[in-house]
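Suppose a classmate hands you a notebook page containing two proteins, each written out with its sequence and a corresponding row of structure tokens. How would you begin to make sense of it? This section walks through that situation. The first entry is reproduced here exactly as it would appear on such a page.
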Amino acid sequence: DERELKLIQRALLVGIPPLSEGDDEEVDYLVRGVLGQTPNGGLAVGDEVLPGRTKLRFHVRDGQAADEDLRLQLGRYKLARNFAGRFGADPRPAAAVLFSCNGRGEGMYGEAGHDSKVLRESLGADVPIAGFFCNGEIGAVGARGLAPVSDDAEAVRSLIHGFTSVVALLYDTSDTPS
């Protein structure tokens, strides 16, 4: 549609799957900027891409898409949290730390504090939130750390993100068996 054509012209991004598992619809991609065109007609991307081996997916981003994706991810988190079985009767976090890309905020949404407001709606008004804007957010992909502690390094692998918000949720698990 017309909106998507405009986005392709000014907000084209490339998604790279962080892991090689899952089908295309189930993978959460690491989004990278398109930096330009190479002399041989390829794309210069803000990450390591191995020709013929790295699967890419094109993405576009605007306030509407970013809002929808944030709400989708928070819904996934709440579902995983509720089935994790380690947070007792009130599974809300004690606090949250929000790391947002400096490309988000008022410039993207037309209002200040959008991601904080959405996070507060999802977690509850009484959960304190702190954070700041970044240029490269560090965190896992998807909802991680909800299951009992794992020795599997891939389960909690942190990566550098771009064009996103990363949320660290802090829980009091002192009375919870690990």
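The notebook's second entry, a different protein, reads as follows.
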Amino acid sequence: MTAAGDLHTPLAIVGIGCRLPGGADSPDSLWRLLCSETDATSVVPETRWNAARYHDPNPSKVGKIVTRRGGFLSEVDQFDPQFFGISPREAHSLDPQQRLLLQATWEALEDGGIPADGLAGTDVGVFIGGFTLDYQLLQNQGKSSRYRFKSHSATGMMMTMLANRISHAFDFRGPSMTIDTACSGSLVAVHLAAQSIWNGECDLALAGGVNLMLGPNTAIAESRSGFLSPEGRSKAFDDAADGYARGEGGAIVVIKPLQRALDDGDEIYAQILGTAVSQDGH
């Protein structure tokens, strides 16, 4: 384990698992999407909500969304629960965000050439950025919603389980936490993962984030607050910027000390030399 207090030991990212809009389901396909300058946004799929029904360009309209667009995955309902030791009954109550993270974790470890079974029972840390819980909102809708809860509903829809589902499924014993700092959650997760390794709490960490847009309620709230671009596209640092575009997906990176990665013969994507977190107050 890295000695506590040795805060300047370089870290290495040795594995990546991702499911992102535009068909980016691997580090290579994500890189190709970026290099080709592909627009990965689209009109809201009918499987989520009716874009025409909920759209209105007037942000003051009650129950409406100023945009029809966002960054969506093609499938969020495909999952093999028994592969992860989850029964079909429990899987029915499982937030698709948890499912997506399990898949991305397996693929990140596979990408790094790390057998998941070999990590069971060890101090692997898990740090996940999360922000919205659309699956929970869908289950809580309607007067009869309280009668629909089952034995696995609580663990299936709670924010804490975004990280702890991974730790439980893979039998990881290190720190495990979900971080909600809104849009910065995944980067703060990387910060905390690095700090955990530097503090000697774990010698390998998984960091990442997830977001799925399963229903219109969150978009309606953000639209009323003036967050969303009517065009459904983010234009950062541009005079034409008029809000941001919502997107979804999940991604995990595998982090370990650089020297250990070199000793293990890992392929290294990047190094982490230092991290920091701040807030801008007013």
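A careful reader of the second entry would note: Strands lie at 11-19, 42-43, 69-70, 124-129, 176-179, 204-211, 249-257, 270-272.
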